[in-house]
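Case study 2.
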Amino acid sequence: MADIVTNPKARRDYEILETLEAGLVLRGTEVKSLRAGLGQLADAFARVEGGEAFLYNAHIDEYRQGNRFNHEPKAPRKLLLHQREIRRLREASEARGLALVALSLYWKQGRVKVALGVGRSKQRFDKRQDLKERETERELRRVMQHRLKGRSAPRAGAGRGVRSGGVPG
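Prediction:
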């Protein structure tokens, strides 16, 4: 289940509380473009309207060999969900003020699926906290790798062009 396209901003800007899978109604040229990996989900979101769910701002490039029947790149696309899932999404987005964000597009048994995330927008403080946690994890992994290889942990400033006398090298 390899991803065709992912949304890099989704997990950074939103705290994802729940994920679900939905099918997409696509035309032939859209599927061919996705097979070539020509799509973007940077600002894609879903909305429930009139008992149906739609995906907006999902950009699928026009198919190069397509003719006058080629698709519109940013057209809204219908999501295939069960009625109870649509009802649950509508309640989540209206009552609790949560956003429906597209996380990724992927193939499943020859069909294109979209991973939707129900999430709350992160504040600037939350983003900084996540950054700090990632940095400490990275530092911990680096120290553990050095220990496993039998070396001592690297010194601060080592390998950054500074000589032992504190003079830049």
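The first strand starts at residue 3 and ends at 6.
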